[in-house]
Amino acid sequence: MKKRFITEIIRVNARKPSYAIIRKAANLIRKGEVIAFPTETVYGLGGNALDPSSVSKIYKIKGRPSDNPLIVHIADMKTFSTLVSEIPPEASRIISKFWPGPITLVLKKSKILPEITTGGLNTVAVRMPRNNVALELIKESRFPIAAPSANISGKPSPTNASHVKDDLNGKIKLILDGGSTEIGIESTVIDMTQRTPVILRPGGISKESIEDEIGKVHSHKSLLGLHRSTTNVNKSPGMKYRHYSPNAQVILVEGTEFNAKNKIIELTQKLKSQGKKVCIMTTSKSLKVNADKVQYMGKTLEAIARNLFANLREADKNNTDIIIVQGIQYNKAGFAIMNRLKKAAITSIRV
Ligand code: TXA
Ligand code: MG
Q1: Ligand 1 atom at minimal distance to the Cα of residue 124
Q2: In the chain, where the domains are located
Q3: Ion ligand 2: residues, Cβ under 5 Å
Q4: Strand 44-48, strand 145-146: pairing
Q5: CB count, 10 Å around CB of 290?
Q6: Alpha carbon of 339 to ligand 2 centroid (Å)
Q7: What would the pLDDT profile of 66-94 be if each residue is shown by its tens digit?
């Protein structure tokens, strides 16, 4: 797509956004434009979910395949009830516990949603974000807002306004800059149309927390496959596409701290001797390795999640050839982080 716009970036107070700024952004949405805004998870690229022409702009700008449906964002329960045709009791329980917050429910859709918003499916994915800029924007625009992550399709999701600018400068009129996002990975997507709900994408709310609330849920079996799962792609169309991939190739190394560190050192030596530019992302502060860059991923799972995409984007700078990432645990928030890393990686080594 050709550059057509001057992209304006407006700084906005994330807790108490100025009404004038929100109104300006909401007017663009009401006119059928598409803009970027912060949520608590990642930045979204939003347009009027009920307007096929707005939604089609979103797909075009991102370069997103049209069979991969969008999440519809709402700010009140009245709008929610106009979008879905059935609300199972477990869905209501998740909503009262976690909304506004980083969990998206897949439910049977109502007739008011255009086909393009839901990629032709008979279900819709809905969430209420926990971010005042997002909530005020949705309220002021008086439409539900369809918003995928505001990155070029296939790239790591943006967690600050400059990531959005790197991907979409000249393609949209406005980026609302509400600072770095609080959670850093996307919402959990859970299919509530099954007898036992199925997690289609792990995210900001862990499986453990959901099960504490509603009992057993399944995880879709493709969640930890390397990119491009081929099984059951129709469940969540997003699963079959490569995701979260920087330009450099990502190699994931999993195993005990000791084994993983040794493998990372060995791999780095080999790749450096082949003339490659290598960046390491590690959870170990004591790793001594002769790489071009070493990035510490953080101490807690929350910190690792918050910085994950920013770290991948940072590691990708200055023509890095290979990013070697040290794997982490699979439980709680670790599951969503490992899901993103597995999808970003071209290969995964267990030692
Ligand atoms: O945290 C988030 O969810 C962010 C912020 C902006 O809200 N949004 C986001 O959207 O990550 P996106 O489009 O990048 O990812 C949406 C995911 C995709 O994997 C898509 O396939 C899935 O949700 N999805 C959307 N509608 C669906 C449906 N009706 N059935 C199954 N999966 C659906
Ligand atoms: Mg996305």
Answers
A1: 29
A2: 8-223, 249-350
A3: 149
A4: antiparallel
A5: 11
A6: 13
A7: 899 999 999 999 999 999 999 999 999 99
